[in-house]
Design goal:
By secondary structure, the chain is an alpha/beta fold. It is 39% helix and 22% strand.
């Protein structure tokens, strides 16, 4: 049984989610104040976090950054009434894995949770030794979510790893933005193409000597991206 940490201060929303999540086979731990989250997070062995952004105490984006600073790669889905692209992108770049806007259909949320667990299994099949890719003195580990480039070793988010893995698995082939959105998020109606562009920019800063003159993650104008390696 997978355990979900639900961070939601609206009692009506929380009660409905608890009922539906438990009916779908999940164990739920509920927190209704942002100041309590890190304490609860430290006590539990969770498989996923459902995080409201607007909370009493610390907000969801701040909490997500704090969770990522611990080294945790726990999947995080934001639940919020906000519906602005900039905030969605900010949440994803902060380390969130998905974003759903109130009001929403619970069946959609359950499908997204299941999708995250499926993609998690694709990203990390189990054996760390088989899950590291090296190219031209650079490397990325899809189990530890670490990467090494000209600037040294850095910690990646799960989504950054997924974007790289999808491109690497199709080395030399052009991949469209919609293909990346479908593979990494499971659909392409929520994150925009600009979301992908932001992730590509961050990855270039890690792996390229000059992010403005990309050698490895090429932009194919009007189509998408192509990963190329020399050795």
């Amino acid at each position: 049984m997978k355990t979900i940490l639900l961070v939601e201060d609206d009692p009506n929303v929380a009660d409905g989610l608890i009922i539906n999540l438990e009916a779908d086979g999940y164990q739920v731990v509920h927190v209704d104040n942002g100041n309590q989250v890190m304490n609860e997070f430290g006590k539990g062995n969770f498989d996923l976090v459902l995080m409201d952004i607007m909370l009493p105490g610390r907000d969801g984006l701040t909490l997500t950054k704090e969770i990522r600073k611990t080294g945790s790669v726990l999947p995080i889905i934001f639940i919020t009434a906000r519906d602005q692209t900039d905030q969605k992108v900010e949440g994803l770049l902060a380390g969130g894995d998905d974003y759903i806007t109130k009001p929403f259909d619970v069946s959609e949320l359950l499908a997204r949770i299941q999708g995250i667990f499926r993609r998690q299994a694709w990203l990390d099949p189990g054996e760390e030794t088989e899950n590291e890719f090296e190219f031209d003195g650079r490397s990325i580990n899809f189990t530890t979510y670490t990467a090494k480039g000209p600037g040294g070793e850095v910690q990646l988010t799960r989504k950054e790893c997924m974007v790289m893995k999808y491109l690497i698995e199709r080395t030399g082939k052009v991949v469209s933005r919609d293909q990346l959105l479908d593979a990494v998020w499971g659909y392409h109606t929520y994150p925009t193409n600009r979301t992908i562009d932001n992730f590509i920019l961050r990855l270039r800063k890690i792996f390229e000597y000059d992010p403005k003159k990309s050698e490895y993650i090429e932009t194919i104008r009007g189509v998408g991206y192509r990963f190329t390696k020399k050795n």
